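Supplementary Methods. Inverse-folding protocol.

Structures were first reduced to a discrete structure-token string of length 300. This string, shown here, constituted the complete conditioning input.
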């Protein structure tokens, strides 16, 4: 397309009950009906005309703070929108990078904790390098009155949120959102780019893909790349671009490596890689034998 361009972006705030885990539901506040909200993609230098709509059946006013906007509140001051209303403002995408957006209406933490966040990518003028797959992954911590996996509709727990004791830590707003039929997919000898955000509102993410090494990481969405990275820190309200090459088939587990969050709070996803094996890179199990321990006499 022509560069720079005028781009129109529309988001609708929708408050709705959705599953957060099997048999467990939660009333999410969303941008566009999903957690995270819609992925916004523009280029540096573009002029963006932004429209925020608040559904008529919403119970709360909402707004938006886009971290990629230069202006008061990242747009929050111009986008305060009552239920059944729409707001508009315009900004120029000055800085390239991957940026979080979130609601900034008081109490801000509660709006974010209910799922009101997403990512905006501002590509350089020439665009990003070509890869085989791009995926959108966003972590968030959720606070319910009931315990982990307690069935039924679970209300938001402000006390847990203030104490920073989440019931769930999740990728893409639901336990299992990136597993099973919803797992990410690739083939061997392909390049995968992950846009990884952290909505918070409280926890820092130690993002890791078990069995992979990140060939390239742009930490905190910046332009300085790191290479050969095992785990990357993503602050609450921050994001990173992660790239790696797939060499060996199998299921690769995405986790927050604050590891109890992965196996006891839900921060777990799967990338399924199909293709031929390469035994020179990874042999698989070669020996499975009986071991009775070292029975030699200790030195006296």
């Amino acid at each position: 397309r022509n560069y720079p361009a005028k781009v129109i972006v529309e988001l609708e705030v929708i408050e709705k009950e959705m599953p957060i885990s099997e048999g467990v539901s939660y009333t999410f506040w969303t941008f566009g009906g999903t957690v995270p909200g819609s992925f916004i993609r523009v280029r540096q230098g573009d002029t963006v005309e932004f429209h925020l709509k608040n559904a008529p059946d919403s119970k709360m006013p909402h707004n938006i703070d886009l971290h990629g906007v230069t202006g008061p509140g990242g747009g929050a001051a111009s986008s305060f929108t009552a239920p059944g209303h729409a707001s508009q403002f315009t900004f120029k995408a000055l800085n390239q990078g991957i940026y979080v957006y979130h609601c900034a209406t008081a109490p801000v933490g509660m709006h974010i904790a209910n799922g009101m966040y997403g990512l905006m990518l501002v590509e350089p003028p020439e665009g990003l390098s070509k890869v085989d797959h791009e995926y959108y992954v966003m972590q968030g911590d959720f606070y319910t009155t009931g315990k982990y996996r307690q069935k039924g509709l679970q209300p938001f727990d402000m006390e847990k949120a203030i104490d920073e004791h989440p019931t769930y830590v999740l990728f893409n707003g639901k336990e299992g959102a990136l597993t099973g039929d919803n797992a990410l997919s690739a083939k061997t000898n392909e390049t995968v780019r992950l846009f990884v955000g952290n909505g918070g509102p409280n926890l820092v993410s130690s993002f890791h893909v078990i069995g992979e090494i990140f060939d390239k990481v742009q930490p905190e969405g910046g332009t300085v790349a790191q290479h050969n990275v095992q785990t990357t820190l993503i602050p609450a309200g921050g994001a990173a671009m992660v790239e790696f090459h797939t060499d060996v088939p199998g299921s690769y587990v995405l986790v927050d490596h604050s590891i109890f969050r992965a196996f006891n709070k839900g921060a777990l996803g799967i990338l399924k890689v199909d293709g031929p094996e390469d035994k020179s890179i990874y042999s698989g199990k070669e020996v499975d034998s009986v071991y009775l321990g070292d029975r030699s006499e200790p030195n006296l």
